[in-house]
Amino acid sequence: MNNAANQREVYMKAAANFFDRASAQAEEGDLLAAGSFILKGLDQERRAGIVGPQVLQLIKPRS
User: CB–CB of 18/41 below 8 Å?
Assistant: First the structure.
C-alpha cells in the first residue's frame, strides 16, 4: 500500500509541474503549448486516481 501512495505522490507532483509549465506558457502567449501541458497534467491526475487496488464488479445481481 505504501508503494501505491508513493506512486500517487509522484503522479501528483508531475501534474503540478505540468500545470506550472502551462501557466508560464500562457503568460508568454503560447496558448497551444499551455493547453498541451494542461492535458498532460490532467492525465497525471487521472493516473494518480487509479493507483492502487481496483475493485471489480464481483457481486453478481440476482436473477
Answer: yes
Tell me the pLDDT tens digit for each residue of 30-59.
999 999 999 999 999 999 998 877 666 666
Residue 49 identity (one-letter amino acid): G
Alpha-carbon distances of 18 from 6, 12, 46, 56, 57, rounded to whole Å: 19, 10, 13, 31, 34
Expressed in percent and rounded to 5, the helix, strand and coil fractions of the chain are 75, 0, 25
Residue pointed to by grid coordinates 490532467: 42
- What is the pTM (predicted TM-score) of this model? 0.79
Instruction: Report DSSP letters for 11-31, one per residue.
Output: HHHHHHHHHHHHHHHHHHT-H
Take residue 42 and report the three cell numbers written for it: 490532467
